[in-house]
Amino acid sequence: MFELKIFENIFFWAVINFLILYLIYKKFFFQRVTQFMEKRSQMIQEQLDFAAKSKEEAIKLKEEYENILAEAHAKANEIVESATLEAQRQAAEIIENAKLEANRILEDALRQFEIEKKKQINELKNQFVSIALLAASRVIEKNLNTEENKKMVENIFDEAGVA
Fold first, then answer.
1. pTM strictly above 0.85
2. Is residue 1 part of a domain?
3. For the segment 111-132, what is each residue's pLDDT rounded down to a tens digit?
4. Quick one: pLDDT at residue 1?
5. CA dist 125 to 46, 73, 109, 154, Å?
6. 5 in a structural domain
7. How far apart are CA 92 and CA 86, in angstroms?
8. Given this model, what pLDDT does residue 162 score?
9. Residue 146 falls inside a structural domain
10. By residue range, what is the domain housing residue 75?
11. Of 11, 68, 90, 138, which has the highest C-beta tally within 10 A?
12. What secondary structure, in 3-state letters, does the chain show?
């Protein structure tokens, strides 16, 4: 049916054809394709290296920012605590000053009260002295008996408003 000689010739020419094409491709294309693949591989590797380096830098920056943020929080807490202590100190100082002022006002009021009390006592003494002198002068003028003297002193006190 088939002749083996024809098949062998076709096979022979196919192998020759394949070898010629291989040599042409090798001469003109394999080197370029290999160079292109190497350049592409090198470019990919450079991009991977750059990405890894960028990632490391980003991690370092993140850590630095986190440290800065932690320091800022600590400083803010310190400022708040300091302000709170200062406010408490000022409040205590204000309270102490208010107590001192209240005591001073109270002492002034007590002094004023004592002064007024002494004035009133002196006025009462003066009034009693005046009444007593008035009574004595009337007793001496009339020189009456003891019963009349007693009534007269009572009348003088009634007139002066002393019960």
1. no
2. no
3. 999 999 999 988 887 787 777 7
4. 47
5. 116, 77, 24, 18
6. no
7. 10
8. 57
9. yes
10. 19-160
11. 138
12. CCCHHHHHHHHHHHHHHHHHHHHHHHHHHHHHHHHHHHHHHHHHHHHHHHHHHHHHHHHHHHHHHHHHHHHHHHHHHHHHHHHHHHHHHHHHHHHHHHHHHHHHHHHHHHHHHHHHHHHHHHHHHHHHHHHHHHHHHHHHHHCCCHHHHHHHHHHHHHHHCCC
Q: Give the count of domains, the chain.
A: 1
pLDDT of residue 63: 94
Q: Residues 6 or more apart from 157 whose CB is under 8 A from it?
A: 131, 163
Asked if residue 56 is part of any domain, the answer here is yes
Dmax over CA atoms of the chain, in Å, equals 194
| Residues of the chain below pLDDT 50 | 1, 163
* Tokens (6 digits) for 68: 């800065």
